[in-house]
């Protein structure tokens, strides 16, 4: 049996709220015109709600959908991919909101809301995002409650209260489920974020690109050391080596692409080149929690060996994950040495890769290097000449002048101002011209140490580029040309260097106010919280086994089942209380309770109220029996009647003191 | 009949039998865990599907916030069971009264819905008697009454049968229902069928031959005009003479109709006779004509008024009635 199922009006209102809460945070990651789509749908629905507009017809809905699809293809050039798919989801959600007509439609809209709100956490995984998703779920649940209740009572916030109560009751079970739920790993490959959504380093270097990062205060990764913290000037977090140059862009050479057999995986037999690494005792161990980068390489200090399963080490000492990092992820590594410890020998092929320069670029630099060689300078001397040149006449700035086709020539002999990547790339180029194997390294430098949480935080503005050069007697060594021109970059954080630059830290306003003590403390507290969130919630996969083992003693199916049951029972606890402790006698209205008390007093004095006797009659009888309390009795009865039948709220609060004062008076006469 | 239908029919009958055995008749039914059934609704299955999709996001993107979201959905699902159950638990249902009706019509059942113990809002209650129209209510206070309709196919005493109460509160994820049998007895009068008496029983003839039922054939007399009477019945002559506004009454000579007599319809079976007698009683009552009732075993002296009419109808309803 059923009735014609219309959507209750409050339900519609709450669905509108749920739509806004779940879609608005997403819109920041999607094309701008989707704001228009979502806003239009919400306003239109509002007009339908007020009865000013009708529902869109089937054809209109379909044409709107087609327009939306066209828009997505125009914006992205494809339909497959994360952003296009989420855009499509938002459009479908908006259209469903618009055309819903029955309770069934409304339910579907609500379910779409649950799904849409969950997609937000693909784009961002900060604590605030978690809270946002949680809030969205609360409102969506309120809308689900709203469409399932009758409109008989005008209480706008009843659905939200109910949803809040249910959510609170759900928390114990939620926690247990979260702890126990098996993490299977991806079932199939999913589209990843397009580049624009993630702030971070790309896998190529074009002069001028790192500068953008240098203005961002977003966190790149955090590190916790088991042992003492290495000195700041040796905190070079290597990300990627770039060995291939086409005249415009430095890219990773296919020579270093992760070939089977040449990669070292923890827990597996080490390939020949990695055996010394595995054999040597580490200086210390550290844990890195990295923000999503959308790239597969990871960051590690100097010569490090990965300890976490699923983290590989390539022969050029680059840590990487087999899948792109699309969520906050944690890994452990052992620090073997702060400098580079690579094989001294170099194969002819490797040598060719590391010294290649494209023909027909930068003739002036080529001439200069040739003249140095003609002077009889060796590789080390040429390197010193270059660094001395940088030190003499170059300016380190966040806003370097643009460079032309012969970028290195322009930089070295004309503009002479640049950022770390300019120095690194030019240095490597010049060294290669001299026949010395050299490559650019992308990574981060330094970091900010948090005393309380005992961890190091690396931000996007710590991004850095430096060089690695191979000399015959020392092998690969790290050379940082930036240190030659601006040594303070190595000893100070960019925060201190660039604080006055315009555009610096536009995305992290709190960082600007380090000078204000309490604000700085607040910022550190927040970062502490964010770190805990990252470690225990986002990185829970890494901790799951340990946590479960700690909680259950031993992870066995029956213990897991008992644990789940306990969570379930905890969620039911409030109900259990209700069943156990509710009085079976019906609770009385407070007004009646007072009057019953009055009747008891009078009964003790010998006047029982007979069934069916009206309050006025009873009062008359009481007055006749107890004339000395007449005023009190009449006041009580009048007040009761005013409150009971006249709806007088003031009177209802006045009753209790009146009865109390009567009880204090000693009854005279009667029994 | 196809095999599937036969199986379904067999199942339906078995279920009916099972319910009858299980659902006892009570004057006041209090809902508790023995009576309340609970099962995920279609909407609940849809919700689980949505949850599975969120879980897929979580797994494929290895995203722990999405895992938490899926876990929240699952936990809410479990919590909803309790809310659904406690929405019905402790409700008290009883039949306040059943208004008489005619066989084949729906009987109006006044149902009292109350709650004992701590009073709380009970929302989205859908109530219906088997075969009747459902009514959706919310119980805001301690008690309320509502009208339901139950099919009354046969004359005699009648009980409205099984009452089904369904709720989807609070999230629509679960269908909570119970079948109860609140005790209540109503009267069902015979189905009225129009028909003129085909015989004039000798025993009652001539007692008051002048009585005429309201009709159109013969002029009977004048009465004061009441607004709404046909204009062509107005005695214009009287009016023209300034004697006031009267309307002419007409009547049909129908013999001694003040006796509603079993013998007036010879040769008919019992139910057909009762149906005609019923209509006859109704007609006479509508016209304010005194009448008596004479059926085998019962005789009501001629009288007038709604109480008399109801007594006559009751006598007809219960004539040779046996509980089925």
Q: Topology, please?
A:
The complex is a heterodimer of chains A (671) and B (324).
Chain A: H1 9-27, H2 33-50, H3 58-76, H4 82-99, H5 103-123, H6 127-147, H7 158-180, E1 204-206, H8 210-214, E2 219-225, E3 236-242, E4 244-245, E5 249-251, H9 275-279, E6 284-290, E7 300-301, E8 303-306, E9 312-313, E10 319-320, E11 329-337, H10 348-355, H11 363-374, H12 379-393, E12 395-396, H13 407-415, E13 417-418, H14 420-433, E14 438-445, E15 448-450, E16 455-459, E17 463-471, E18 475-479, H15 481-485, H16 488-491, H17 494-498, H18 509-512, H19 517-538, H20 540-552, H21 557-581, H22 590-604, H23 615-625, H24 630-646, H25 649-664
Helix pairs in contact in A: 1-2, 1-4, 1-5, 1-6, 2-4, 3-4, 4-5, 5-6, 6-7, 7-21, 12-14, 22-24, 22-25, 23-24, 24-25
Chain B: H1 3-22, E1 25-26, E2 28-30, E3 37-40, H2 42-60, H3 64-88, E4 91-98, E5 101-102, E6 106-115, E7 122-129, E8 135-139, E9 143-151, E10 156-158, E11 163-167, E12 174-182, E13 186-189, E14 212-224, H4 236-240, E15 246-253, E16 259-261, H5 270-286, E17 291-295, E18 298-303, H6 306-318
Parallel strand pairs in B: 1-12, 5-13, 16-17
Antiparallel strand pairs in B: 2-4, 3-12, 4-6, 6-9, 7-8, 7-11, 10-13, 11-12, 14-15, 17-18
């Amino acid at each position: 049996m059923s009735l014609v199922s219309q959507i209750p009006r409050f339900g519609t209102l709450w669905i509108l709220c749920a739509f806004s809460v779940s879609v608005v945070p997403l819109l920041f990651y999607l094309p701008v015109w989707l704001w228009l789509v979502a806003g239009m749908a919400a306003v239109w629905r509002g007009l339908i709600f007020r009865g000013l507009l009708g529902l869109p017809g089937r054809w209109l809905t379909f044409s709107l959908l087609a327009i939306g699809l066209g828009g997505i293809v125009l914006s992205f050039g494809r339909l497959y991919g994360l952003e296009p798919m989420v855009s499509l989801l938002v459009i479908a959600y908006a259209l469903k909101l618009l055309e819903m007509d029955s309770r069934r439609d409304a339910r579907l809209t609500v379910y779409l809301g649950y799904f849409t709100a969950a997609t937000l956490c693909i784009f961002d995984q900060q604590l605030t995002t978690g809270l946002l998703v949680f809030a969205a779920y609360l409102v969506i649940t309120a809308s689900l409650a709203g469409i399932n209740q009758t409109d008989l009572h005008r209480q706008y916030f009843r659905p939200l209260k109910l949803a809040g109560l249910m959510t609170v009751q759900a928390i114990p079970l939620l926690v247990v489920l979260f702890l126990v739920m098996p993490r299977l790993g991806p079932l199939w490959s999913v589209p990843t974020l397009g580049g624009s959504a993630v702030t971070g380093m790309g896998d190529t270097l074009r002069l001028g690109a790192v500068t953008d990062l240098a203005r961002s205060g977003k966190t790149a990764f955090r590190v916790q050391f088991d042992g003492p913290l290495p000195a700041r000037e040796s905190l070079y977090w290597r990300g990627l080596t770039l060995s291939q140059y086409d005249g415009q862009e430095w890219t990773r050479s296919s020579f270093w692409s992760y070939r089977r057999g040449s990669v070292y995986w923890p827990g597996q037999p080490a390939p020949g080149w990695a055996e010394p690494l595995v054999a040597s005792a580490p200086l210390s161990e550290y844990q890195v929690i990295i923000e999503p980068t959308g790239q597969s390489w990871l960051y590690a200090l100097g010569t490090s060996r990965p300890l976490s399963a699923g983290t590989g080490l390539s022969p050029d000492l680059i840590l990487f994950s087999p899948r792109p990092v699309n969520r906050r992820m944690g890994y452990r590594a052992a620090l073997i040495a702060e400098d580079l410890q690579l094989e001294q020998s170099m194969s002819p092929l490797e040598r060719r890769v590391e010294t290649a320069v494209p023909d027909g670029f930068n003739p002036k630099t080529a001439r200069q290097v040739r003249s140095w060689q003609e002077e009889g300078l060796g590789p080390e001397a040429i390197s010193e000449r270059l660094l001395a040149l940088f030190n003499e006449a170059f300016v380190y700035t966040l806003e370097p002048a643009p460079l032309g086709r012969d970028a290195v020539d322009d930089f070295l002999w004309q503009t002479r101002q640049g950022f770390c990547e300019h120095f690194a790339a030019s240095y490597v180029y010049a060294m290669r011209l001299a026949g010395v194997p050299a490559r650019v390294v992308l990574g981060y430098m330094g970091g900010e140490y948090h005393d309380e949480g005992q961890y190091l935080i690396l931000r996007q503005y710590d991004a850095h580029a430096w060089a690695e050069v191979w000399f015959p007697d020392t092998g690969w060594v790290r050379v940082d040309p930036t240190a030659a021109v601006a040594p303070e970059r190595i000893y100070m954080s960019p925060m201190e260097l660039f604080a006055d630059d315009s555009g610096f830290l536009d995305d992290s306003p709190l960082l600007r106010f380090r000078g204000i003590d309490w604000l700085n403390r607040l910022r550190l507290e927040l970062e502490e919280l964010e770190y805990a969130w990252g470690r225990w919630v986002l990185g829970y996969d890494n901790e799951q086994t340990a946590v479960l083992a700690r909680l259950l003693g031993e992870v066995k199916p029956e213990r897991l089942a008992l644990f789940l049951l306990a969570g379930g029972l905890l969620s039911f606890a409030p109900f259990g209380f209700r069943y156990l402790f509710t009085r079976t006698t019906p609770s009385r209205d407070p007004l009646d309770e007072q009057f019953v008390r009055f009747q008891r007093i009078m009964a003790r004095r010998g006047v029982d109220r007979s069934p069916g006797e009206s309050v006025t009659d009873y009062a008359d009888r009481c007055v006749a029996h107890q004339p000395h309390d007449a005023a009190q009795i009449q006041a009580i009865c009048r007040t009761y009647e005013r409150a009971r039948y006249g709806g007088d709220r003031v009177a209802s609060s006045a009753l209790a003191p009146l009865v109390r004062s009567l009880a204090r008076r000693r009854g005279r006469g009667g029994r | 009949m196809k095999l599937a239908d036969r199986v379904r029919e067999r199942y339906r009958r078995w279920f009916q039998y099972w319910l009858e055995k299980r659902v006892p008749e009570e004057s006041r039914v209090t809902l508790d865990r023995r009576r309340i059934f609970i099962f995920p609704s279609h909407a609940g299955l849809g919700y689980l599907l949505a949850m599975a999709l969120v879980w897929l996001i979580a797994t494929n993107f290895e995203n722990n916030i999405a895992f938490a979201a899926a876990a929240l959905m699952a936990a809410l699902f479990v919590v909803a069971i309790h809310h659904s159950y406690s929405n019905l638990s402790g409700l008290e249902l009883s039949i306040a009264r059943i208004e008489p009706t005619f066989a084949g019509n729906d009987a109006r059942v006044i149902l009292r819905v109350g709650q004992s113990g701590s009073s709380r809002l009970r929302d989205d209650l859908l109530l219906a008697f088997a075969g009747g129209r459902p009514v959706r209510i919310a119980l805001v206070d301690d008690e309320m009454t509502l009208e339901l309709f139950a099919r009354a196919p046969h004359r005699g005493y009648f009980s409205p049968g099984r009452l089904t109460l369904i709720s989807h509160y609070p999230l629509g994820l679960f269908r909570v229902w119970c079948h109860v049998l609140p005790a209540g007895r109503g009267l069902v009068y015979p189905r009225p069928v129009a028909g003129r008496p085909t015989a004039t029983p000798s025993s009652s003839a001539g007692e008051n031959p002048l009585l005429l039922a309201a009709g159109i054939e013969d002029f009977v007399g004048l009465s004061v005009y009441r607004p709404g009477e046909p204009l062509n019945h107005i005695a214009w002559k009287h009016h023209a003479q300034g004697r006031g506004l009267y309307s002419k009454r007409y009547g049909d000579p129908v013999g001694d109709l003040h006796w509603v007599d079993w013998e007036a319809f010879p040769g008919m079976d019992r139910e057909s006779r009762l149906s005609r007698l019923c209509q006859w009683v109704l007609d006479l009552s509508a016209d304010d004509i005194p009448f008596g009732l004479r059926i085998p075993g019962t005789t009501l002296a001629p009288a007038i008024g709604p109480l008399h009419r109801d007594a006559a109808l009751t006598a007809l309803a219960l004539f040779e009635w046996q509980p089925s």
